[in-house]
Design goal:
The structure holds two protein chains of two kinds.
Chain A lengths: L2 E5 L2 E4 L5 E8 L5 E7 L5 E8 L5 E2 L8 E7 L2 E6 L8 E9 L5 E4 L3 E5 L1
Parallel strand pairs in A: 2-11
Antiparallel strand pairs in A: 1-3, 3-8, 4-5, 4-9, 5-6, 7-8, 9-10, 9-11
Chain B lengths: L2 E3 L4 E5 L4 E3 L2 E3 L6 E7 L6 E7 L7 E2 L2 E6 L4 E6 L8 E11 L2 E6 L3 E6 L1
Parallel strand pairs in B: 2-12
Antiparallel strand pairs in B: 1-4, 3-9, 5-6, 5-10, 7-8, 8-9, 10-11, 10-12
The chains are: A mainly beta, B mainly beta.
């Protein structure tokens, strides 16, 4: 089946630095990638939707300049957390439309970000 | 705006027994999709079952089945012959596709524990 590879799985960074998270669709082309944030014991909250070759669409309340999303190819989307602060510590998950079946979303394995 | 409500924060069931997880949603749309996702401790999101709103027949995937009541906007998940590996968070999700935009909206989740 369709696989979305997400890296890194865990990252610890210092306050003020930037962190890049990558999601790659393996063996299929993902025209649309979704980025979610999940706080402990809570649900997934959509942060933004990225379409290949165009600017991402951010959900209300999500800072565009802080969470930079790039979807430069049909197999790669990246989320960069800029000038990270401890409150940005969270679990970030990407997902992509999977081919073959209608609206079958495939999720990456997630990235646990800890800002110290 | 669409909302998804899961009224059972936690549930438990004995191995081999049957359990039903509740989900209700609110929408004014007629065409949409509903999903149940499983998130085990690994935090990998796994699609359990999917239902298209235009289909009257309830979806079934092996031990997993749904009771889709469109008029009542209810979408419950039944797990038969529960197994220890079914222990996970279960999220109900709603998706509609309009005007070139699609978005998954998740409920808050139900933590299911299968006891030996």
């Amino acid at each position: 089946g369709a696989v979305v590879s997400q890296h890194p799985s865990r990252v610890i960074c210092k306050s003020g630095t930037s962190v890049k998270i990558e999601c790659r669709s393996l063996d299929f082309q993902a025209t649309t990638m979704f980025w979610y944030r999940q706080f402990p014991k809570q649900s997934l909250m959509l942060m933004a939707t990225s379409n290949e070759g165009s600017k991402a669409t951010y959900e209300q309340g999500v800072e565009k300049d802080k969470f930079l999303i790039n979807h430069a190819s049909l197999t790669l989307s990246t989320l960069t957390v800029t000038s990270a602060h401890p409150e940005d510590s969270s679990f970030y998950i990407c997902s992509a439309d999977s081919p073959g079946t209608p609206y079958g979303y495939t999720f990456g394995s997630g990235t646990r970000l800890t800002v110290v | 705006a669409q909302t998804v409500t899961q009224s059972q924060p936690e549930m438990s069931v004995q191995e081999a027994e049957t359990v039903t997880l509740s989900c209700t949603y609110d929408t004014s749309e007629n065409n949409y999709y509903l999903f149940w996702y499983k998130q085990p401790p690994s935090r990998q999101m796994i699609l359990v079952i999917r239902q298209e709103a235009y289909k009257q027949q309830n979806a079934t995937e092996n031990r997993f089945s749904v009771n889709f009541q469109k008029a009542a906007k209810s979408f419950s998940l039944k797990i038969s012959d529960s197994q220890l590996g079914d222990t996970a968070m279960y999220f109900c999700a709603f998706m509609s596709y309009q005007g070139g935009s699609e978005k998954l909206v998740f409920g808050k989740g139900t933590k299911l524990t299968v006891n030996p």
